[in-house]
Amino acid sequence: MAKIVEIVIVDDNLGLLESLELYFREKGYAVAIADNGEAGFELIKARKPEVAIVDLRLPGMGGLELLKALKNEDIDCRIVVITAYQEMETTVQAIKLGAFDYLHKPIDIDALDAVVDKALSDIPEKEVIKVIDEDFKENTIVGRSHELKEIFKIIGLLSEVKTTVLIVGESGTGKELVARAIHYHSSFAGEPFVALNCSAIVENLLESELFGHEQGSFTGAVSTKKGKFEIAGSGTLFLDEISELPLHLQAKLLRFMQEREFERVGGNRKIKFNARIIAATNRDLAQMVKEGEFREDLFFRLKVFEIDIPPLRKRKEDIPLLVEYLVKKINRTTGKRILRIPMAAIDRFIEHDWPGNIRELENVLTRAVVLSKDDCLHETSVVNLLRQPHVSHSTSFQLKSLSEIEAQHIAQVLEHCQWNISQAARILGITRPTLRSKIRSLEISPQNS
Ligand SMILES: Nc1ncnc2c1ncn2[C@@H]1O[C@H](COP(=O)(O)OP(=O)(O)OP(=O)(O)O)[C@@H](O)[C@H]1O
Ligand SMILES: [Mg+2]
């Protein structure tokens, strides 16, 4: 993890403020500025920089007040104050209030540079990752491993050509995320992205899900309905868990991929298909072909272009970035504010094997964030969570029903919120009535959780 050193500069002289900002930014620091005491205080509180350069004479909240306020909040930041010669009294006050050093106006940049260096030199090597929320972007693929960089390149290449793609990878490695990235980086990103999970639909309805049906074509077909192929238009059709497609539908899919046109169930009008097909699987299709469970011809049609996403345990250098990104994401969804992640906690994540890949990492982090009592993701809580059998290594995997896990998780969240139903429902992402009905049906009560 790159060491990011942050500096906040507070001065009401805008010219000076901007030139200092430029100067320190050029030197590779992360710089934030404020032109008054109140804003400066908020900025230092929020960003917890290593060093702050503060003019003592500020309109509104002055430099001394700012120092006092920081002291009251117990904010650990080295403050270099800027004073005028005639302000000897206030300078002494500032040093008493904990300022690291002071400089007289007009500012000699070399002297300031030396003071900042001195302030930084005896700060221990950065041991925490700071979570800064501003640059969060949803649906980003995060990582810096060689494997992931190759995938970024492929996504770029595929933006120009509309070939069929097969994405292969263990559960939770990010197959759907990559499929979406391919779509949203392509020249037809404005067209629909339609996802269909081949394992999640009732078999005799799958055909109508895919191809649509004409009114009256079977009992229950009360009106004409477009299928996923038609809805995808000229966009992308994502066939998730393609291995679960029954053999007779594999034949139909193959024919359709060859002809690139289809008919609705019960219809005879040919409809053209212009979308890109991206299929995904966590199973070994070649092996399934050998065992006669998957059609070989369809397999080759799908793997025109294959993307293999390696499991997380084979690209552990992605873990620090992923943890930082996912914590930002979880902060947003849970309303919590984790601002610091100690490197010691990151090390624990790196040691873990992650059989459930990034989804597992996200789940563990969600629990850690929800259970945290302050703005730090402490190593001890990470260790405890990784020790729990249901999030730990697959060898200690416990066979539990979904409702058991659900009951356990809901109970934990409720405990955390001290049975505040609204807050718990918000964290769980369900409505209050749904939560109440789950509490009843899963028989969750405060004493047994
Ligand atoms: N490189 C990544 N950067 C950021 N988030 C990621 C990354 N990879 C996966 N995720 C997140 O992890 C979760 C699981 O990813 P996704 O659903 O794409 O996995 P999958 O391979 O389709 O899993 P499954 O086989 O279980 O369906 C998602 O929340 C996704 O956003
Ligand atoms: Mg998936």
Helix content: 40-55%
> What is the CATH class of the largest domain?
Alpha Beta
Q: Any idea how many domains?
A: 4
Largest beta sheet: what is the strand line-up?
A: 2-1-3-4-5
Number of H/I helices: 19
* Relative strand content: 5-15%
List segments where confidence is low: pLDDT < 50 over at least 5 consecutive residues: 390-397
CATH topology grouping of the largest domain? Rossmann fold
Can you tell me about this structure?
The model is unreliable at 390-397 (pLDDT under 50). This protein has a 5-stranded parallel β-sheet, sandwiched between helices. A 5-stranded parallel β-sheet has the order 8-11-14-7-15. α2 (37-47) runs parallel beside α3 and α17 packs across α18 (421-428). It is elongated and about 95 Å long. The chain has 4 domains: 6-126, Rossmann fold (3-Layer(aba) Sandwich), CATH 3.40.50.2300; 146-312, Rossmann fold (3-Layer(aba) Sandwich); 316-399, Helicase, Ruva Protein, domain 3 (Orthogonal Bundle); 401-449, Arc Repressor Mutant, subunit A. The protein has 449 residues and is an alpha/beta fold. α1 (14-26) links the parallel β1 and β2. It has helices at residues 14-26, 37-47, 63-72, 88-96, 109-121, 146-158, 175-184, 203-211, 228-231, 247-259, 285-290, 296-302, 319-334, 343-351, 357-371, 379-387, 402-416, 421-428, 432-441; strands at residues 6-10, 30-34, 51-55, 78-83, 101-104, 128-130, 165-169, 193-197, 212-213, 225-226, 236-240, 261-262, 271-272, 276-281, 305-309, 340-342. The chain is 45% helix and 14% strand. The longest helix is centred in the C-terminal third of the chain and has 16 residues, at 319-334. Magnesium ion binds at residues 175-176, 240.
